[in-house]
Design goal:
Layout lengths: L1 H67 L18 H13 L3 E8 L6 H6 L3 E12 L1 H13 L4 E10 L7 E12 L4
Antiparallel strand pairs: 1-2, 2-4, 3-4
Helix pairs in contact: 2-4
Length: 188
């Protein structure tokens, strides 16, 4: 009976070892699958968080951009020619120079500035006028003038600015400025 018990016990031990031999790879595979699932869930959570952060940043950027974007001037008055669409803005730019005690030495305008992005891309919707001015005044007068241009309620672009001291009096500055005015075209 001892011999049968030993053989039975040996068979049970062999069956248990064979079962463990089959079970260990399956358990390891299941454990690895569980670990991969956990890692994938963490990566998914991180990606969702990144998407949420990017969407938040985008909405903040859009809100910030809309807050600083100025409207484009639209002349509702009579007259359909291009020059009259800038009449008020042109006058405001010149008056701002006079108001800030700047001496206006020269002024020229260009109704088709080839290097302007708006003129190149959407001239069918907007009129563009580039004003080329030469101004003289003190630093504080120029600063006040550019602050007024910056605070103007409609979109104005300072496309080029060159400031140099006046040769005869270094307290006076000369400024060559290109200011671009934009207005919406009136549908005929």
């Amino acid at each position: 009976m001892n011999k049968n018990l030993t053989i039975g016990l040996a068979i049970i031990i062999c069956a248990a070892v064979y079962g463990l031999y089959l079970l260990i790879p399956a358990a390891t595979g299941t454990y690895n699958s569980f670990k991969d699932l956990k890692t994938s869930q963490e990566q998914l959570a991180n990606l969702k968080q990144q998407i949420a952060d990017l969407e938040k940043a985008k909405s903040e950027h859009v809100q910030k951009e809309s807050a600083i974007t100025k409207p484009i001037y639209k002349n509702d008055g009579p007259g359909g020619d291009v020059m009259s669409s800038f009449g008020v803005m042109f006058e405001d730019v010149i008056q701002a120079a006079k108001y800030n005690k700047l001496k206006l030495y020269s002024i020229a305008y260009n109704m088709a500035p080839a290097d302007d992005v708006v003129y190149k891309n959407v001239q069918s919707e907007y009129n563009v006028c580039e004003i080329d001015m030469q101004l003289y005044g003190s630093y504080s007068d120029l600063k006040s003038y550019f602050q007024d241009i910056y605070n103007y309620p409609y979109l104005i672009n300072i496309s080029k600015m060159e400031i140099t001291p006046y040769e005869r009096d270094r307290a006076i500055l000369g400024a060559k400025v290109k200011i671009v005015l934009y207005s919406k075209k009136v549908a005929a």
